[in-house]
Amino acid sequence: MIDALIITIAIVISLLGILGCILPALPGPPLSFIAVLIVQYFYDKPYTDKLIIILLIITVVVFALDYVLPLIGAKLFNASGQGITLGIIGMILGMIFFPPFGMIIGLFIGAIVGELMAGKEHSEALKVGFVSFLFTMLMMIIKLGLSGYMAYLVFSRIFIGFFS
After folding, report:
1. Among 79, 85, 109, which residue's Cα sits nearest to residue 97?
2. Choosing a second label site near 8 at 20 to 30 A (CA), which of 57, 130, 157, 163?
3. Distance CA 94, CA 47 (A)
4. pLDDT attached to residue 162
5. Number of separate domains in the chain
6. Residue 53 pLDDT
7. CA 116/CA 125 separation, integer angstroms
8. H-run or E-run covering 108
9. Cβ distance 34 to 13 under 8 Å?
10. Nearest to residue 108, comparing CAs of 78, 137, 69, 67?
């Protein structure tokens, strides 16, 4: 009974981790890491301590980059404060009113509107919007890769343990 509960919790947290790579309301990689820790604790340490430490470090770095990389990208292409601010507001509004893809569209439109309000030319505003979009998509892909790998670790151990 308790095994089924633990398996269910690990699977649900792992799936939420993958979903969290797309939805900003959920911290994807940290949830995926928690699922790995659950399996590590309840399945007699199927992973080495070295792997757990490496996953922890990568999870922390990716979690931090998720917030910083889009801003760095925007700044590299001379985004104004208004472009960054309205991009963030657009992302939040898009997430609320048009989930899940409204977040990406809202970021793109918000950054463009912010740049236009700051007096930038249309081509400059489009460039900043596109860069914001690209860096957000890059982080989404990185998070999905990491969470996907951790989900693989979780599911492979659960199903090996289940069928043996």
Report:
1. 109
2. 57
3. 39
4. 58
5. 1
6. 97
7. 6
8. helix 102-117
9. yes
10. 137
Encoded tokens for 78 = 């001379």
Residue for token pair 């939040």:
92
Report yes or no: 61 and 115 within 8 Å, Cβ to Cβ.
no
Question: What 3-state DSSP class applies to 49?
Answer: helix
- Largest distance between two CA atoms of the chain: 65
- Residue ranges for the chain with pLDDT beneath 70: 1, 100, 161-164
Report whether 98 contacts 106 (CB < 8 A). yes
For residue 161, the model assigns a pLDDT of 58
Q: Cα dihedral sign for 108, 110, 113, 114?
A: negative
Q: Tell me the two tokens of residue 67.
A: 């917030």
- What pLDDT digit, counting tens, does each position of 5-28 carry? 988 999 999 999 999 998 777 899
Full residue range of the structural domain in which residue 24 is found: 2-163
Count other Cβ atoms within 10 Å, centred on residue 120: 20
Helical residues (DSSP H) of 43-101, grouped into ranges: 49-76, 81-97
CA 164 to centroid of chain Cα atoms:
34
Torsion sign (Cα): 39, 43, 48, 50: positive
- Angular region, 26: left φ>0, alpha ψ -120 to 50, beta rest: beta
